[in-house]
Specification:
The complex is a heterodimer. Chain A is an all-beta fold. Helix content of chain A is about 0%, strand content about 50%. By secondary structure, chain B is mainly β. Chain B has no helices and eleven strands. Classes of the chains: A mainly beta, B mainly beta. At the A-B interface, β5 and β6 of A face β5, β9 and β10 of B.
Chain lengths: ~120, ~120
């Protein structure tokens, strides 16, 4: 079975400071990992993904995430937060293959609300 | 990037009526579409997965006779909420994936359903 955990319901950061939104995962095999952002009353927008290769993945709007296999983590980061980054962030995971209990359907975390203060 | 549209963006209907929500992939062919429901400040709840030309696969606890899903073409899926009740009020989001081997899902902007 696959699962993903976002341990923080909310992250507060001052504008200009670095931000981190945490995500840990569990899969039977190897993971595909994703980050999405949702602004109020909108659908989800794709930010970045990890499939294979370089552990540091760069995505949209200056965001990046680092895949850490030993810690089964895929934390989202940005060096300097903007007020406009305030939104709901979702991490998602799915198995690369379809081992027993795996699925082509990604599992989403419960979301982390990022609030960037001016 | 790939674009998914939803229509309508918001709808208000009376209890007992049915409402249809359309989801379209605008610049790609979606072999698989997903329908999610989202409650305020909560995560996405997958309702069903549909593959073009096949019956939808519903998640446990989702009433297939109440939430009718049709994926008649590679660019269109519809969700019909039948005999709507106030507890069906929610934010419904569709998502589409191009091919089984392609990993990304692209999300529509969502539909806010309010049942009075």
């Amino acid at each position: 079975a696959q699962s993903v955990a976002q341990p923080e319901d909310q992250v507060n950061v001052a504008e200009g400071n670095p931000l981190t939104v945490k995500c840990t995962y569990s899969v039977s095999g190897n993971p595909y990992l994703f980050w999405y952002v949702q602004y109020p009353n909108r659908g989800l927008q794709f930010l970045l993904k990890y499939i294979t290769g370089d552990n540091l993945v760069k995505g949209s709007y200056g965001f990046e995430a680092e895949f850490n296999k030993s810690q089964t983590s895929f934390h989202l980061k940005k060096p300097s937060a903007l007020v406009s980054d305030s939104a709901l962030y979702f991490c998602a995971v799915r198995d690369i293959g379809i081992p027993p209990g795996g699925s082509y359907i990604p599992t989403f975390g419960r979301g982390t609300s990022l609030i960037v203060h001016p | 990037g790939a674009v998914v549209s939803q229509h309508p963006s918001r709808v208000i209907c009376k209890s007992g009526t049915s409402v249809k929500i359309e989801c379209r992939s605008l610049d790609f062919q979606a072999t698989t579409m997903f329908w999610y429901r989202q409650f305020p400040k909560q995560s996405l709840m997958l309702m069903a997965t549909s593959n073009e030309g096949s019956k939808a696969t519903y998640e446990q606890g989702v009433e297939k006779d109440k939430f009718l899903i049709n994926h008649a073409s590679l660019t269109l899926s519809t969700l019909t909420v039948t005999s709507a009740h106030p507890e069906d009020s929610s934010f419904y989001i569709c998502s589409a994936r191009e091919l089984a081997g392609v990993v990304e899902q692209y999300f529509g902007p969502g539909t806010r359903l309010t049942v009075t």
